[in-house]
Structures are given as structure tokens and as C-alpha cells.
Amino acid sequence: MGPREGTCPVSNQTDEFNEFTALFERTDSFDDYYRSDLTTLIRFLMHLGASSEDAQEIAQEAMMAVLKTWRCVDEPQAYARAAAKTIFMRRIGKAKRDQDAAKRAWTPEQHRSPFVSFAAEAESVMQMLRMLPPEQREVMAWTIDGYTPSQIAKATNQNAATVRSHLRHARASMKNHLARHRNTTREEE
Amino acid sequence: MESNADFTLDQMLQRAAASTLTSLESAVDVEQSLAELHRQAAEQQTDAAEPGQASTR
Fold it and tell me: What SUPFAM superfamilies does the annotation carry (chain A) (predicted)?
């Protein structure tokens, strides 16, 4: 999922500047990729548990990582998601040291004034995802973006069986939650 | 029963994902974000070209 071996040599001190400038040359193909994937990358981050504002910032940071390695990346969508997850986890670690930031990161969208509002069903799915353990939530976020367990395993450097196990547990938890919610609604009626 | 629950979950996830994307597409200015990304990249390129010089930001 990372840069292609052999096609992107590790830069040495002499070549560093030339390579750096070459990587930053504006490419139409990168622009097309950016336009097609930015909002789905933001959504992926929100499924991981980021607020919409943080997701937008992190997506931009991940896109910068993609731009820097554009000529070497085989699968930019997967690369961007892996980079975005790393940046998000770094932010979570930092947020834990900062109570205010931590609260903001985990407050449901409707309790703040986000730059965008979402339909009730979308909000409740994000709430369900946030109740899952992080590893299950991550597998669900990749799955919602259309990745198979094998592809997720490759992109996240995990065993495919582990990914399938996380997916199975995540789906079971979400189905239980839906069943409980349905029963509660019936009782209230 | 089990397949019903799976079907319901999948349908809900699909609808929610599509709806979230629609909301984001109407709220995010992709062209402006792309222009900003290239501006930042150019700034980093300048910083790399002038090692030791403080950024003007």
C-alpha cells in the first residue's frame, strides 16, 4: 500500500532537493484523485470517530502525504486512509493530554455547532460506530468505503483472519444495538 | 432472522454513508481545499529550497 519498491528510490542528500521539487510538481492526475476522494476520506475519518472539523483538517494533512508520494503510490485511496488513521491516532493521543480537545473530539455532532449537519440516521450510525472498540470501528470504516477484509488486511498490515474477526464482532454488536433499540421503541409505543 | 438483521444493518449503513457523503459534498469546498493544499505544498517547497531560512508564515 505504500510507495512502490524500486520505482521510488530513497533520496540521498544530493538528490533530496530535486526529488522534493519533482514530487511537488502539480499533476492533473493528483488533482482528479483529490476531487474524487476528499469527501469520502473525510467521511472515513468521521467513521473512525473524528469530529467533522477534525476530519476535514486531517484529510487535508493526509492528502499532503499523498501528494508528496504521488508518483510512487499504487493505491492512493488506501494510502490516504492509512495516513489519515495514523494522523488521527496521533491527535487522539495528544487530545488525551488536553481534556478540552478530547471532549471536542468525542462529542456527538449534534451537541456542537459543526460546519455541516447530518441526517438523523447518519448520526445514529456514527454513534453506533463510536461505541465499538477502535480496532472494530476501523474495520467498519474501511468496509463502508468498499474494502474487502483482504484489502483491509493489506492496507493496515494485519492478518486477514484478524480483520474478519473484528468485522464479525463489529457487525454482531451493531445488530444487537439495533435489536435493543427496536425493542425499546416497541415498549415505548 | 439472522439474514434479516444483516440485511437491515447493511441497508442502514448504505443509506447513512450515502447521506453523510451528500451532506459533506454540499458543505466542503473541494476546489478551495485543493488550491490551499497546493499553496501549502509550494510553501513547503520554498522552505526546502532555502534550508535554514525561517518560514514567512
Answer: Sigma2 domain of RNA polymerase sigma factors, Sigma3 and sigma4 domains of RNA polymerase sigma factors
A171 contacts B9? CB cut-off 8 A: yes
Complex prediction ipTM? 0.83
Taking CB atoms and an 8 Å limit, are A67 and B41 in contact across chains? yes
**CB-neighbour burial class of residue A124 (10 A; exposed 0-12, middle 13-18, buried 19+):** middle
Which residues of A have a CB under 8 Å from any CB of B? 17, 20-21, 24, 26, 31, 34-35, 38-40, 42-43, 46, 52, 56, 60, 63-64, 67-68, 115-119, 121-122, 124-126, 144, 171, 174-175, 178-179
- A84 occurs within a structural domain: yes
pLDDT in tens, A136-174: 999 999 999 999 999 999 999 999 999 999 999 999 999
- Domain hosting A28: range is 10-114
Task: Return the residue of A nearest to B4 by Cα.
Answer: A175
Q: How far apart are CA A58 and CA A71, in angstroms?
A: 22
